[in-house]
Amino acid sequence: MAFETINVEVQDHVALIKLNRPDALNALNTLLLQELGSALEEADANDKVRCIVLTGSEKAFAAGADIKEMSEMSFVDVFTSNLFADINNRIAAIRKPIIAAVSGYALGGGCEVAMMCDFIIAADTAKFGQPEINLGVIAGMGGSQRLTRFVGKSKSMDMNLTGRFMGAEEAERSGLVSRVVPAKKLIEEAMGAAQKIAEKSLLTAAAAKEAVNRSYELTLSEGMLFERRVFHSMFATEDQKEGMAAFLEKREAQFRDK
Ligand code: CO8
C-alpha cells in the first residue's frame, strides 16, 4: 500500500518504517497513526519480513500527537472516538519484533509510540519527554504508565510534572533505551540489530517477545509460570531440535520457523 505520511522499505528481511511529516516534526495525526498501524500489520503479514525497525528523521522521531488537530477537539469527541486507543492495540497485536530507532525529539505520543515498540535504540541526539502538562493535559498513551515501569516513579514524576526532556545518556542509564549510538550510525545499528533477530527462528523470537511483554502484565510467579510453559512448548518445534543439534555439531543453525 502507498502511504502519505510514512515510507516503508524492506531490506534483508527487515521492514524499515520511517515516519515522514517533516514540516511538523512527525507529529502524530490521525492519518499518520492509521498508516502506521497498516504498515506494521502489512509487515507482520509479509513472509519476507522477519523484524521491523520504526524510525523518524534526524531531527525528530515524533514531537508528539498533532497539537493542531487536537486543539479543536471536545471531551465528547475524544471520549467517543476513544482517541489513541487504536494505535496502542494495533502495535500490541504485532507478533514480529519491533525496534524503535530514535533520533532527536521523542515527545509525548512520540515517546509513547517508541515505548510501545519492543526496545529502543537511541542516537546520542535523542531527547525523550512527556511535556503534555505544558498543554494542560496529561500523557494519554503510556507516558504515566509505561514510562514509570521503565525509569521508576521518581524520574517519571519528574518528567510528567516538569515536562523536562531526558537526553540519550540519561535515558540509557535509566533503562528507557537499550543502547546509544552516534546519530550517523543509528539506522545502521538498528538495522544490524534487526538483521541479527531476523537470523533467529521467527517462532522463537515471537515467543521471547511475548514472554518479556507478559512481565509487564503479570505477577512474578504467574510470569514465571507463563515463561516456563512457553519454554516447554518450544520443545514441540523443529527449530529447537535444529538449534540444539547445530550447537552440538558445531555449525550454524538453519531455522525454518517450524
Ligand atoms: N503537533 C503539531 N505540530 C508540531 C508539533 C506537534 N506535537 N511539534 C512540532 N510541530 C510543528 C510546529 O508547529 C512547527 O510548525 P510550523 O513551522 O508550521 O510553525 C514545526 O513543527 C517545527 O516546530 P518548531 O518550530 O516548534 O521547532 P523547534 O525546533 O523550535 O522546537 C520542539 C521543537 C521543542 C519539539 C517544539 O516543536 C515542541 O515543543 N513541540 C511540541 C512538543 C509537545 O508538546 N508534544 C506533546 C504533544 S501532546 C501528546 O503527544 C499527547 C499524547 C497522547 C497519546 C498519543 C499516542 C499516539
Automatic annotation (TrEMBL):
<comment type="similarity">
    <text>Belongs to the enoyl-CoA hydratase/isomerase family.</text>
</comment>
<dbReference type="InterPro" id="IPR018376">
    <property type="entry name" value="Enoyl-CoA_hyd/isom_CS"/>
</dbReference>
<dbReference type="InterPro" id="IPR029045">
    <property type="entry name" value="ClpP/crotonase-like_dom_sf"/>
</dbReference>
<keyword id="KW-0276">Fatty acid metabolism</keyword>
<keyword id="KW-0443">Lipid metabolism</keyword>
<dbReference type="InterPro" id="IPR001753">
    <property type="entry name" value="Enoyl-CoA_hydra/iso"/>
</dbReference>
<protein>
    <recommendedName>
        <fullName>enoyl-CoA hydratase</fullName>
        <ecNumber>4.2.1.17</ecNumber>
    </recommendedName>
</protein>
<keyword id="KW-0456">Lyase</keyword>
<dbReference type="GO" id="GO:0004300">
    <property type="term" value="F:enoyl-CoA hydratase activity"/>
</dbReference>
<dbReference type="GO" id="GO:0006635">
    <property type="term" value="P:fatty acid beta-oxidation"/>
</dbReference>
<comment type="function">
    <text>Could possibly oxidize fatty acids using specific components.</text>
</comment>
<dbReference type="InterPro" id="IPR014748">
    <property type="entry name" value="Enoyl-CoA_hydra_C"/>
</dbReference>
<dbReference type="Pfam" id="PF00378">
    <property type="entry name" value="ECH_1"/>
</dbReference>
